Amino acid sequence: MKANMEYEKSAGAAGPLLRIRDLKVGFSGRNGMLLAVRGLNIELSKGEVLGIVGESGSGKSLGMLSSIGLQARNAEVSGSVVFDGQELVGKPRSEMRALRGSKIGMIFQDPLSSLNPVMTVGDQIREVLFLHNKGMSKAQATERVLELLRLVAIPQPDRRIKQYPHEFSGGMRQRVMIAMAIANNPALLVADEPTTALDVTVQAQIMLMLRELKEKLGLALVLITHDLGVVAGHADRVAVIYAGLIVEEAEVRELFANPRHPYTRGLIASIPKLSSSEDKLYSIPGAPPMLGAMPEGCAFHPRCSFAQDICRKSAPPTLEFGRHRAACHFAESLPPWNETAAVAKGAAHG
Amino acid sequence: MLNYILRRSIAMPFILLGIVTMAFMLTAITKGDPLTAVVSEQQMGNPEIVAAAKQRWGLDKPLPARYLIYVGNLLKGDMGTSFVTRQPVARDLMMRLPATFELVIAAMIIGSAVGILFGLLAAYYRDTAIDQGARIFSLFGSSVPIFWLGLAALFLFSVKFQILPGPGRLDPRMAAPPVVTGFMTIDTLLAGNWTAFKDALVHLVLPSVVLGWTVAGTISRLVRANMLEVMEREFILTARAKGAGEMRVVLHHAFRNILVPVLTVISYSFAYLITGAVLTETVFAWPGMGSYAVTAARSLDFPAIIGVTIVGGVMFLITNLLTDIAYVLANPRVRLN
Amino acid sequence: MAMVQTGSARFRLPVWVSPALIVGGVVVLFWLIATLFPYWIAPHDPFDMVGRRLQAPSSSFLMGTDALGRDVFSRTVHGARYSLPIALLVVASAVVIGSAAGAIAGYRGGFVGNVIMRLVDITLSFPPILLAMAVAASLGPGLFSAAIAMVVVWWPVYARLMRAQVLEVREREHVEAAVAAGAGNFRILTKHILPLCWTPILISASMDLGQVILLAASLSFIGLGATPPTPEWGAMISDGARNFYNWWIAFGPGMAILTAVLGFNFIGDGLRDYFDPRSAK
User: Fold this and answer.
1) Range in A265-274, B125-134, B197-206, C270-279 with the lowest mean pLDDT
2) Span B141-153, mean pLDDT?
């Protein structure tokens, strides 16, 4: 077990595709800077799927958006984001624009509001091609758009290409978003809650499609979600984020088998199970802290039933257990994880 | 959708009738004697004229009959004879309409362009000095008396700094081109008179800027409000995620989504422009319908007053109808239903 | 959970009080004083010849003199005594008549309601200034005719507004309850519906005060409102147009109109912020 030491290089050939170090994103308020993202450390290799799990407001979306330069105008970003050997933080906007849509693709939660309602689907996908392929003709772009629509399994692409977003179903719209995001063969795809706004059956389709595309195109995928079920089925590694910091990170099976952070335990215990004998659904007591009212010490301590004095006083170090790390003073001394028992007694009480 | 046009078109004749009726009521209340509405004071002494008027308008008959005769005459295109010009009012109006159109169209173009530009700037540079500036600009436009603004503009630019010409459509020393459309700018072009064309254009500047200012404020506020709302929407983030530059995001994505309310407000501001045109034409000696109305009002030229009112009402009605139809057409969702 | 103190409590203005509202309030106050106690501000009698004709602004005559040797500044100040009360009268009348009509149309509907709304539609089909001109001309010269003309033009706006409000409030539960309890129509209307409807009307009215001042001045400018020698702002500007090179004659009244209208507009904005802070900015 190593405390606060260099992370081992992951299995990528020339190092990770994406490495985020101590990323902080804050907003200037009347009383100084309010940090929404307080020091993110993330690594992703080619072909890997990283799931980032957290509640609303945890900073999961903001962190990734800021990494690729899509933060709000009044947000300030510091730290390091190295993508494909280039430092993104502080990169001039024109260069960032060249990366977005070509080497880095992004899809969002609600495809209805994420697509321009007054442009045809064809025009919108063609746009991302024209933006990054100077000199491409309209005919060539249209060819490519049709190819993409077929790739994401949209039937009758020549008819669909002329239609408007509202003429598509939710699932098809999301597939259009995916087509747009992969149009220029990106190395990295960031999916921000890609299935949250969709029906359960459609969710499965979309996730499957993302996985297939990942295989076919050799993408690295960042899956941002609040739904542990999604990461359980589709991620290679999972990072759990709380109050702007990653509190636990591990390979997916390891995380579910042996969660080492009380918050993760709480999250897992909150998943409703059909086989449970309890009639009440468990949820972690309390609410995440507001930006201006960050607790001292460990941000989770007010809601944590393992909390001791040290938790209230000092921020926890990140303890490592092989490729599993957790930011908790008691990461190695938590009681063993037994799922059913946890639910029966109310998770965080062990 | 054809449905909708049909429904609106059917309502129109009734409203037209209402307009005409209201105009008629106005003639009925003038100073108690309906004769004063069709015969001028000077001509009252002439028994022949009085008799002819009584014939034409059925003044001896009871009210309902007079109304029918009035409507009948209207349908024949007879709006009475102007006391001032001694010409049929209908003819006067026909001759004056193009001048007003020219002014109003120019004002609409300038006002819309400025309004949209300021609105975009105010939205993009929200809460900065630019935004405040745009706000003051628009506030000023809706608070200043337009006739005073016109006078001030004339004084400053024509008299003081002498960079723009005085009132009127054309330099009085220049020969007017033969009337084809009634639009001085077009007619001078058609006549091949380049100097006159430039002169006409230059004469158009001040009145159309003054008139356009009154609507630029409303348009800019609407553009700003709508842009602020649109820029928060998800697809803007998508456009940025695709690597689109700011200009493209603002114009091609955001602005395209507010075209409908923008076009709507521009069309409705036509109404406001007609109002303003009355006063602007007076100040700038512009020979359009507005100044005709003012002269008529000043001289108590009732046939002319009523005539202008009816025509104004009809123009209003048609513009609003066209705007509503265009609104429905422009909305892809509604169109496809 | 340790929280950071953000400073001691101080005197804070309510959030809806903006600089604009304060400025507007001050300006309107000024003009109200000018309306009620003009001689506190104006040094000379507005009707008397007190100086040489057509003098440019000077220390003795802040805004110069007009073609009849009258002090433009005093006339401008006195002008408020015509513009403001008329605006208030017109708006008040339009509100009362329009609201009554709109409430009836909205509450009972039926034939009467329909007739009212048709009348509203037709009146609103006319460009306001043309209709006002026509009515004023028909009624004869003078500010009173102009006032009536403006009420005729303006009442439909409030009729529409009130009707929309009544239609919406009518469906609310407490109205249903009152009906079930057997309350009579008049009572329902006055006690249960109308009290909830007046906010947008009030906001509209405060904004319209400025517009009515403009319309009144426009009518006078044309010659259909105030008759000479009345020192009404629009009429004064008309004088100024006749003596175009003596720019100061029109300057005073123009600024007066501008400031008064701006003042009322700011107050209207402020009121809107008060009643619906969400719509601010």
Assistant:
1) C270-279
2) 90
B22 touches chain A (CB under 8 A): no
Dist. CA B326–CA B202, nearest whole Å: 32
Render pLDDT for C198-233 as a digit per residue (tens, 0 to 9).
888 888 898 899 999 999 999 999 888 888 788 899
Q: How confident is the model at residue A4 (pLDDT cuts 50, 70, 90)?
A: very low
Q: Is residue A193 part of a domain?
A: yes
A–C interface: beta-carbon pairs under 8 A = 12
**One-character DSSP codes across A99-159:** HBTTTEEEE-S-HHHHS-TTS-HHHHHHHHHHHHSTT--HHHHHHHHHHHHHHTT-SSHHH
Identity of the residue in C140, C210, C214 whose CB atom sits nearest the CB atom of B31: C140
For A109, nearest residue in chain B (alpha carbons): B234
Residue A6's pLDDT is: 40
Chain segment C242-276, per-residue pLDDT in tens: 888 888 888 889 999 999 999 998 888 888 777 77
Question: CA–CA separation, A304 vs A311, rounded Å?
Answer: 10
The answer to whether residue A34 neighbours chain C at the CB level (below 8 Å) is: no
Residues of C in contact with B23 (CB under 8 A): 134
The per-residue pLDDT for range A67-81, each reduced to its tens digit, is 999 988 888 999 999
A109 part of a folded domain: no
Inspect the interface and report whether the beta carbons of C224 and B29 lie closer than 8 Å. no
User: Nearest CA to B207 among B103, B328, B70, B67?
Assistant: B103
Whether residues A74 and A209 fall in one domain:
yes
**pLDDT-derived band of residue C106, with 50, 70 and 90 as boundaries?**
confident
Residues A173 and A232 in one domain: no
Q: Which residues of A touch B238 (CB under 8 A)?
A: 106, 108, 114-116, 177, 180
Which of the four pLDDT bands, split at 50, 70 and 90, describes residue A10? very low
ipTM of the complex: 0.83
Asked whether the beta carbons of residue C130 and residue B309 sit closer than 8 angstroms, the reply is yes
- Chain C hits for A304, Cβ within 8 Å: none
Residues of C in CB contact (< 8 Å) with A are 1-4, 6
Across A120-124, C146-150, C194-198, least confident range: C194-198
B240 CB within 8 Å of a chain A CB: yes
> Identity (one letter) of the amino acid at A41?
N
* A93 and A40 inside one domain: yes
Domain range spanning residue A94?
13-103+186-349
Residue A69: CB partners within 8 Å, gap ≥ 6?
A: A88, A91, A93, A96, A97, A100
Looking at chain A, the number of H-run helices and the number of E-run strands are: 13, 13
Residue C199's pLDDT is what?
83
pLDDT digits (tens, 9 = 90+) for B296-325: 888 878 888 888 888 888 888 888 777 777
DSSP state, A193? S
B234 inside 8 A of chain A by CB? yes
Cα B4 to Cα C128: distance, rounded to the nearest angstrom: 27
Q: Given the structure tokens 């799922």, which residue do they identify?
A: A339
- Give the residue-averaged pLDDT of B174-181: 82
Per-residue pLDDT at C9 exceeds 60: no
Whole-prediction pTM value? 0.80
Interface test with B, best of A61, A109, A115, A119 (most B CBs within 10 A): A119
Token look-up 């004088």 returns: C239
Is residue A144 domain-shared with residue A285, that is, in the same domain? Answer: no
Q: Do B243 and A102 touch (CB under 8 A)?
A: yes
- Is the CB of residue C240 less than 8 Å away from at least one CB of chain B? yes
- Nearest neighbour of B143 by CB, restricted to C240, C250, C261: C261
Residue A29 lies in a domain: yes
Could you tell me the CA-to-CA distances from B224 to A200, A230, B217 in Å, in that order?
39, 41, 11
In angstroms, rounded to a whole number, what is the distance separating the alpha carbons of residues B140 and A279? Answer: 66
Cβ pair B313:C254 closer than 8 A: no
